[in-house]
């Protein structure tokens, strides 16, 4: 089948189940918008210990000038690690690009910076922990004065984290020169010393796959998925590993999960088509491949194989309409750049790949997928442009004060709808 994890243009994501939180960018201006700032979110975690690990790694990785407003915020049940306080989006985006190599899942977001949510704040002299002050709110001057004692236990923990990060970086260097077995050992050392991040398990899984240990790769990729269940790329990579081992039921579950998270994921439709082809469900294979084509897939190999085995069903799984809007976008700052991107998409480049590389919007990590919106949640210009177009029509350029949006209306993944379409198409016409 020529299936390879590396055929996918890999892109990581932040906690993608929460992408709809970015809808604020497209809402009409409200009276208290002046209280919002742009900030960098590097991660969001269920456990405070995980947030603390990332906080410490940022302190080790960045220089003093880059650590302004580094903090851990308790938002609902999540601990979010955030960095910086910017009045303008372009300044935040410029800073993000400077740290993207080290913290690939970071995104720019517009948010309130509230004292009561901050449980840990970095200052030039120390890292201030609110828990040391018995829950009292700290004003900025007080924060600057507090210098919590670093116990031997805390010092030992920091040294262990630094050592673990060193193992991970050494593993990355081995990968760069194709010394995969040594890379595997370094990654395992990093995990043993306390790094519990999905991307590390993912890197280990990919190396194990590359060296032929597919069962072991499944174990490690499954750990990555459990740590970040709302990351579509992890879901599809685990699905491909199951597919390679002919564990098709498990593979199907992961491909479905990836598409439920991000229904604009072209490669997920393609691999789902390969799976249905292997199981002999040719009608479903056709629908999957046609969805991949409508999202930008240009390959013909699977179509040739299907054409020999069956006739394409005369149904369109993308023919939904109405005012519910599922949207993906690429945001840029120049009209000529937007025009060039539209031409590239027409020429065969995938929308989601360009979004990841070039979009200025924080939804770039999701291949540009923004989520589901009602009309009232969208900027009027965006809403009007999308309502004028059919689902999965070519993307259109819309200008707002944020920049130039290359937007496309897509549809949710709805397998039961596919089943109904095929069942209805089999009924004799009256």
What do these coordinates show?
This protein is of the alpha+beta class and 430 residues long. Helices cover 46% and strands 14% of the residues. It has helices at residues 48-61, 89-99, 140-145, 152-176, 180-192, 198-210, 214-227, 232-244, 248-261, 266-279, 282-294, 301-309, 335-346, 351-358, 380-387, 415-426; strands spanning 37-45, 71-75, 78-86, 107-111, 118-122, 127-129, 325-332, 369-373, 396-400, 403-410. Strand 5 and strand 6 form a beta hairpin.
At a glance:
The chain is α+β, with helices and mostly antiparallel strands and 430 residues long. It has helices at 48-61, 89-99, 140-145, 152-176, 180-192, 198-210, 214-227, 232-244, 248-261, 266-279, 282-294, 301-309, 335-346, 351-358, 380-387, 415-426; strands at 37-45, 71-75, 78-86, 107-111, 118-122, 127-129, 325-332, 369-373, 396-400, 403-410. It contains 16 helices and ten strands.
Structural class estimated from helices and strands: alpha+beta
How much is the radius of gyration in Å?
Answer: 23 Å
Largest sheet: 6 strands, antiparallel
At the first level of CATH, the class of the domain at 36-148 is Alpha Beta
Treating each run of at least 4 consecutive H or I residues as one helix, how many helices?
Answer: 16
The side-by-side strand order for the widest beta sheet comes to: 4-1-3-2-5-6
CATH superfamily of the domain at 36-148: Sporulation related repeat
- Give the number of DSSP strands: 10
The span between the termini is 41 Å
Order of helices and strands: EHEEHEEEHHHHHHHHHHEHHEHEEH
State mean pLDDT (0 to 100 scale).
80
Strand content: 5-15%
